[in-house]
Amino acid sequence: CQPVPKPESRVEVCDLNPCPPRWKVTPAGPCSSSCGLGLAVQLVTCVQILHGQEVLQEEHLCPVAEKPLTSVPCVIRTCSYEWSFSEWSECSTSCGNGIQTRQDFCLSSLTHKPVNPLFCRRFPKAVVVRGCSAGPCPEQEGTQSPGAELQPVTAATLLPTAAAAPQHRHKELDVPLAAGPSEHTKPGGGEEDMAKRSFLCVCGNLFLNATGIINMTGVESRDCMVAIGRPLREEISVTILESSLNCTAGEVLLFSGRMMWRTGCRKLPLSLINSRTNTLIVKQRVVLPGNGVILQYSSRTAAKKYYQDCDQQLFGPQGELVNPVQLPEEREQVVCRTFITVAPRQRISIRALNTDLGPEGNQTHFNYILVRDVSTMKTVVFHGKQPFLWQSTGSQAEIEFHE
After folding, report:
1. How far apart are CA 401 and CA 337, in angstroms?
2. Do 116 and 44 belong together in one domain?
3. Cα–Cα distance list, 133 to 52, 92, 137, 174, 273 (Å)
């Protein structure tokens, strides 16, 4: 071909259409659990090759049905201990909505036998209480199921949740005297059974007796919280009979109420704490098993009035709230409040079944309902004809009816 002129070399584009967008997956990150089943997060993005370069695109341009998982299971090693659970109990009600519960216990993967729960405290635990429905209840006019109505607590309606035994000296307490509402000794049961149930159930309880002793030593929980409640017009005094808290290890005792906040560890025995109001929460944090405090509490008429005559105090467990009626003798505007306190292991839900607070015109002077979460002190305002569902993060709530 030498005598013939050679044509120039050239490259022609064979397809002008770019490749469609596709999913790109980066390598998975670290496993979320150091042992047992965990999750590793991987970054999934939609990309497209344009002019030889990878360009990030919006996710809806890639096929949604083919999108890879953003979290994938992973196991580094088998855990030596893990949480295990019993079967769910039957629904607590024969009709309507109720709850189911199950027991949790720490299990050794080597022996497959329960061990001290302290070995599992670093592992997340699944829920032990869930809702259930046993079908609709037959309608019965003029009747209500037990506990279906919230009533202001008076001395005649208080539950025997703490043993009132001021005649016992604390050094003679071989058995914890504080027990929950269900802590009744069964026929034939001995002191050992009562002690075991008391140890297991003291944390998370609400105590409503006028006096009592609460033994928080030897509890299995790292954080143990109890609440004391009395009717309005009373205040609570707590004396610390004994304390084995290790302050160096970070163990501490915390008291909180609507008008007070106090923490301490050193020099606790025989110290006195006054709630200033009718409710008091005691939280104990321990690190070493067996440590804790023994408290003795009593109530008396409050030295100063911290409430208004139209205020109400409710201790649950469920019922109906109605906007309180203003007292006729009150000349000035009075903000009526409703205080709700439940056991520390429980939470509060408030659903507005019907609201009619007038037109939503002047945002300053119209009627409204104010709900406050006491644990976080966050406040939400509802107005007009706005239905709502409010849920607490703690066990105490306050409602103010502004009108």
Report:
1. 6
2. no
3. 59, 9, 10, 42, 44
User: What percentage of the chain has pLDDT greater than the value 70?
Assistant: 77
> In the structure encoding, which two tokens stand for residue 397, read together?
């709530």
CATH number at residue 101: 2.20.100
154 pLDDT higher than 50: no
Q: Please give the residue range of the domain that contains residue 380.
A: 312-402
pTM assigned to the model: 0.51
Same domain, 318 and 395: yes
In a domain, 365, yes or no: yes
Calculated CA dihedral for residues 96, 97, 103, 106, nearest 10 degrees: 150
Beta carbons within 8 Å of 371's beta carbon, 6+ residues apart: 350, 379, 380, 381, 382, 390, 397, 398, 399, 400
Does some domain include residue 33? Answer: yes
The DSSP code for 178 is B
Statement to judge: residues 26 and 92 lie in one domain: no
Residues 230 and 292 in one domain: yes
Judge if the upstream peptide bond of residue 317 is cis by omega within 30 degrees of 0. Answer: yes
- Domain match, 250 and 282 both: yes
- Residue 156 structure tokens: 């005649």
| Torsion angles phi and psi, residue 348, rounded to 5 | -115, 135
Is 306 part of any domain?
no
Q: At which residue do the structure tokens 């067996």 appear?
A: 290
- Residue 261 placed within a domain: yes
pLDDT single digits (tens) 86-135: 888 888 888 877 788 888 888 887 788 888 887 787 677 777 777 778 77
Q: Which of 272, 271, 234, 275 is nearest to 257 (CA)?
A: 275
State how far the Cα of 224 lies from the Cα of 287, in Å rounded to an integer: 11
170-176-178 Cα angle (round to 5): 100
If one counts the domains in the chain, the total is 4
